[in-house]
């Protein structure tokens, strides 16, 4: 079966041009003029872009005494409704659990995905088994390893563990990721705030100031450089972290930064809301910041010092958020955003002139496909690429509302925001997965996307080599010790 997308304006990370796209089965066969096929989609007046890739989601995540409410079914449905055709979720081994066993569990959970997915493996503990399992994980198609520098007592790893894992990543051609917040300082601030009677959701933000993120980002960068490996920093929310990334890149280090659509558009004033539920629903880590930090993130996307916009989609219901009434440290951390990432970024970025359309495609799809080594199968409109496409209506408008969302939760952090620019049709490997508000992809239609190691970025910098392979100095005389 062939399908032609006719008369649209194709927008990629590099170019904007008129052309028809011929799809044969699951992949793009040709791009040209006056193409025909068994079926036709009229895209006149629309933009045709690579489907969004969200490299940061947590479906059914076991966390803070509960599980995030969107699973791979509702979560990937939300993605498709918002023009996102691939998500990358985090596999989280329990303490002492082998990585391959955990990976099998995540494959089980993802069996009901409606769109394509991939995994990052989290290093949640360190030992011989983890060391031995890491190459097996890479062989199983997962080339990235996540490290939590926060969540002391649960997910957090220490510097020695992180350094060991980063060195292992360097050997394997894998990419380490970090959640960069100083978990010790956060834990200390949390206790101080609680002791002073600050138990509301606003204290969540006070306990995680930009300093804890900037410090951890810089530390992770220096450890990565010492290990000789590139680094990807998830959810960069503030200038302190962005500054460390800029500095590293300017020195030639391969460090990548990922702001979230939430941090770009929502600010810390949300935590001052008089309604407890309103504030608690916005509790995530890192927390929302002020306008100056938002400006820093936008500037980074435009100038290239930040490369990817993600969501960290980790949705909890209002009822789950209320586990933290009387103690903000027990509010499950996380917000949704998968369905809204593209429309909100288009509205607040492209329509305001902060991003070009080509930059929009780069930061929502193409850049991460390259970083994660799935380009050009994903993130591209080229012959041979998977036909993961979004047909984008730049004139369509809606007011974001939980009442009409695909996500399973009972609210939306973007509630009431008016967006202009929405998907009309989302195609997943050549099939119409979502069209005009109707979800067509079935449970289980999504497939696991293997990402081989040896990404184009396989070694980092600079001065580390001498230190990693130290040369012993021969001396003519050594004084007697005391
Ligand atoms: N931050 C969140 O807000 N939720 C999930 C994990 C994380 O790091
Ligand atoms: Zn569980
Ligand atoms: Zn995180
Ligand atoms: Zn996350």
Q: What does this entry show, briefly?
A:
Its EC number is 3.5.2.2. One of its GO terms (molecular function) is dihydropyrimidinase activity. This protein has 482 residues and is of the alpha/beta class.
Walk me through this protein's architecture.
This protein is α/β, with parallel strands linked by helices and about 475 residues long. The protein has a single domain (about 50-440, about 445-460), classed as Alpha-Beta Barrel (TIM Barrel). The chain is about 30% helix and about 20% strand. The strands form 4 sheets. A 7-stranded mixed beta sheet has the order 3-2-7-17-18-19-20. The protein has a 7-stranded parallel beta sheet with strand order 8-11-12-13-14-15-16. Helix 8 (about 240-250) links the parallel strand 15 (about 230-235) and strand 16 (about 255). Helix 4 (about 160-170) crosses helix 7. The N and C termini lie far apart (about 85 Å). The model is unreliable at about 460-465 (pLDDT under 50). It binds dihydropyrimidine-2,4(1H,3H)-dione and zinc ion (ZN) (3 copies). The site of one zinc ion has 4 residues, from loops. Its EC number is 3.5.2.2. Belongs to the metallo-dependent hydrolases superfamily. Hydantoinase/dihydropyrimidinase family. GO terms for molecular function: dihydropyrimidinase activity. Keywords: Hydrolase, Metal-binding. This is Dihydropyrimidinase.
